[in-house]
Amino acid sequence: MTVSMLDLHAEALDGSAAYHEFLLFYKPAGKFVYGFIEGLQDSSFYLSVINSMLPDGWRARLFQAGNRDKVVKTCLEIDWSRFDRRRVCFFVDRDLTAFVGGDEHLPQNIYVTDQYSIENDVVNHETLSCLLDEVFNIVGLTPDEEYAINRMFDEEYDRFCEAMVAPMSQILIWQKNGNQPCLENVKLKDWFEFNNGRISLRTKYIEALSRVGYAAGRCKCDPSSNELLASAEGEFRGKGGVPRYIRGKYVLWFFVRFALSIYESVQLHCARYKKRPKTHMTLGIDNAMVILGTRVRAPESLRVFLNNTYISYIEEALGSQSQPRLNA
Hints:
The protein is an alpha/beta fold and 328 residues long. It has 13 helices and six strands. It has helices at 5-12, 17-25, 40-53, 68-77, 97-100, 125-135, 143-176, 208-219, 226-238, 241-244, 248-264, 288-292, 300-318, and strands at 32-37, 59-64, 88-92, 110-112, 192-195, 198-201. The strands form two sheets. A four-stranded parallel sheet has the order 2-1-3-4, with helices on both faces. Strands 5-6 form a two-stranded antiparallel sheet.
């Protein structure tokens, strides 16, 4: 599987920027494994998980392809006679492919998230506890206080997810029709507000159709009829779409805003505080995955995938018969 530099550079002329970068860094005999991800915010999470599982002396290099389609396209177009599929892997979000198709025949070296995206796996009690402790410096919660915050989190998360069902159903219809709306244009701060950890819809957007209309205007797509929306909502709920298939960046926005709201009203949630403690760092939606990526437990599906690919490749390369390490 020897590849000359001239061959690599010639092949790179017709490849994507990420693939070109991969070819420049690729070392046939080096102690590296390689991966392609969608965007920058995926890097901290995947690198943290992968490097925690690699043996000493091995490192991972990840390349940003830009979006899901580009990651998959890169995998499908590579000449695999040159590379070991276990050494070069691909990591993509599931998105709404459960409804619109696209994951049925993907190669085994492509990892697809269990939920809409990797951000969805951040939203849980464990990560919230780390966030309050390590970022907001809220320490010394009693068991009752921690239970109350977790219960509030569950209640508000359920309320948020329910409010997102109608917009996500509309997004599902658009994608089924071949539209590619810019979902970044939907600003959830326009819909929701937080008060002492509780989320509520602003008066203007209490009705579900008002949120659908807003999303249509921001995404420059036509809103669907009530009948189509009702049908899409039934399909969305039928496949566990609440909250599994709510867009990960929307879920992450909720998580960050909920944690910030708890911090801002900490004296109501923890008796030892009369005012807010000094924070260790600034948390926002733009840097949330960088901060949280190293604090999130890897999904079991990802650990299995990495053992079947990178760890398998490395153990064969080292001639080792030991069991894969599972210390992520």
